[in-house]
Amino acid sequence: MNSSAVAADLTSLTGVAFSKGHGTGNDFILIADPEGEQQISAAAVAAACDRHRGIGADGLIRAVRSQALPEARELLERHPDAEWFMDYRNADGSISEMCGNGVRVFVQFLLDSGLVALAPGDVLGIGTRAGIKWVSRTDQGFAVDLGPWSFSHPETALERGVDSLVTADSLDVTRPGLSISTGNAHTVVALAQRSELDELALHRAPVVEPVPENGSNVEFALPHDPLVLDGIAEISMRVFERGVGETLSCGTGACAAAAATRFWAGAGAPDLWRVNVPGGVLGVRFFTAADGEEHVELSGPAVIVAQGVFG
Ligand SMILES: N[C@@H](CCC[C@H](N)C(=O)O)C(=O)O
Fold first, then answer.
1. Which percentage of the chain shows pLDDT scores above 90?
2. Same domain, 266 and 158
3. Are 188 and 122 in a shared domain?
4. Which pLDDT belongs to residue 253?
5. FRET label pair with 280: which of 22, 89, 104, 258, CA 20 to 30 Å apart?
6. How many CA atoms, within 13 angstroms, populate the side-chain half-sphere of residue 305?
7. Is there a single domain that holds both residue 46 and residue 142?
8. Which one from 44, 72, 91, 99 is the annotated catalytic residue?
9. CA 223/CA 233 separation, integer angstroms
10. What is the per-residue pLDDT for 1?
11. What is the pTM of this model?
């Protein structure tokens, strides 16, 4: 995008108040729009997220009351508790269903703005395009029940353990990948050595074949050796996010990487996982929820660093 186009698209946000926050280095611009009055174009999102000519961020999140958003009506009928909806956009302006780091930062933003209250031990339901997400406080920040995770191609995954091929610039051979949904699309590749993770070149999107219909976030996961220590399994991960590029962290991606590695590890792999990302550490927990399904929970910090007004 050239600088005059960025300036023009930013003008559409003039006077709009924002906060800037991050979760393990995955950073977001947050805007409160309770009555759903803001029309924020994809170009305006991209201009705001531009790291040289805008505020700079991996994504933009608009906080809208679910009842003010036609696309949230069905969710609100099923979950009248979901007062607030997280309208998430990637840095290129594209829409995503979910953002695991984003939902924690979103809740911190709602709390700081006095729009919600969340006492220790309570849960807050947040509407997203991937359904309601239940958020609670932890010592380190927040835990989010992302709901059930699933294989994108269950038959192939169960039969072959993988379902796709992934090529990144720095990998000398194409590697098998496993496609997993944690509300949004992920393809996880297992690496064998620390040097492969460190030397990954993620300046360009890895190629996934067959090409996922709506694109995919791609996670490269290195299981630690030993994988399990004191009942907690540990992996390190880097990610190329759909609609963004390489980011310092991806919450839904951390859950997908843990789910894939746990599946590959076989019976007896633990439910508790520690996922190291370039921007910090995330916790992942698998548990059987009241609906009888296996859910995945993401935990980690959420920090608001600045407030301002687009000028
Ligand atoms: N960083 C997020 C995921 C954001 C959306 C993703 N790029 C997509 O297009 O699905 C996370 O923390 O989960």
1. 95
2. yes
3. no
4. 98
5. 89
6. 15
7. yes
8. 99
9. 8
10. 64
11. 0.97
